[in-house]
Amino acid sequence: MSGSPTIGHIGVFTSGGDSPGMNAAIRAVVRAAAVSGLRVSGILGGYEGLIQDRVQPLGPRDVSNIVQRGGTILRSARSDAFRTPEGRALAHATLQRHGIDALVAIGGDGTFTGAMRLTEEHGTPVIGLPGTIDNDLAGTDRTIGFDTAVNTAVEAIDKIRDTASAHDRLFFVEVMGRDTGFIALACAIASGAEYVMLPEVPQRIEELVSALAEAKSTKSSSIVIVAEGDEEGNAFAVAAKVKEQLPQFDMRVTVLGHLQRGGSPSAIDRVLASRLGVAAVEHLLHGTQGAMLGEVCGRVLATPFSEAVGKRKSLDSHLLAILPILAT
Ligand code: F6P
């Protein structure tokens, strides 16, 4: 994880699903590098852009007025070509042509897996920043974008609650998270949901049905948050199974989808992204590479990519335990 390459020129890119706060991270990398006298180039479109030589210089003024913007000024993509050794050789050739000595990769597990391959095969030093709404990376308490995505989803669920109460309805609301339930659990607690379906927790439809039947005796509306990766299926599938056993319920399904990925980042995400972006440059200059930076208990820590990607992060068991108490 440590070495002492001479670094004069850093490449920065965003890859995989975009997340709010990526722009704040790019801005921090560019400005921290400039303060240290380093050149920075932005690579457009993630690994695909590296293969296709879509590289442009970035200075401090090029990243003005982006700290508050969602999406990513560098665009993002998932690259099939980069999964091949030939694709990675082309990417390395681009780095050599531009004299880029090291990379800051902002993304999730796919991004860091790609970074590991690039380093193994071509020796490129890479530091990763955790940019994904899913919060599914070990080595950081929160990923950049998670807080904003949860806030966006909770705002939407609050609105759903209004109409659910007005009509005495049961709503199933599907949230993102790929195969993890971090967004779902946080949303369930914050929105006062009656139940949450999580990929990490084996749950039976019968349990959900009895919880809903019980809630119906005292409440006018119920909301069930369904993580998109839940093993019972998506929100429509779960609603259909419940409908078979509770045909008298008036039910509706809402899939929040990609609106959770957009929007202006929360202050929490901006601060996290800014802190980690500056730290990325400092760590590269001190010889750290092959690692993702994260914030753990308030401190910036470097975790080797193999651990950040390979170790499964657990849901907060305390949050899991309090949900049924809060839903009474
Ligand atoms: O990883 C971020 C994420 O938004 C997941 O929550 C979701 O499963 C996936 O990306 C959606 O990917 P796409 O934007 O390619 O449809």
In short:
The protein is of the alpha/beta class and 328 residues long. The protein contains eleven helices and eleven strands. It has a seven-stranded mixed beta sheet with strand order 3-2-1-4-5-10-11, sandwiched between helices. A four-stranded parallel beta sheet has the order 7-8-6-9, with helices on both faces.
Number of helices in the DSSP assignment = 11
Mean pLDDT: 96
List the domain count as a whole number: 2
| Helical percentage | 40-55%
Structural class: alpha/beta
Low-confidence stretches: none
Beta strand count: 11
| Order of adjacent strands in the largest pleated sheet | 3-2-1-4-5-10-11
In angstroms, what separates the terminal alpha carbons? 48 Å
- Roughly what fraction of the amino acids lie in strands? 15-25%
Bound small molecules, by name, code or SMILES, are: 6-O-phosphono-beta-D-fructofuranose
Q: What is the CATH-assigned architecture of the largest domain?
A: 3-Layer(aba) Sandwich
What does the largest sheet look like? Answer: 7 strands, mixed
Shape: elongated
Radius of gyration: 22 Å
The CATH C-level name of the largest domain is: Alpha Beta
Which key terms come to mind for this protein?
328 residues, Rossmann fold, 2 domains, seven-stranded mixed β-sheet, elongated, binds 6-O-phosphono-beta-D-fructofuranose
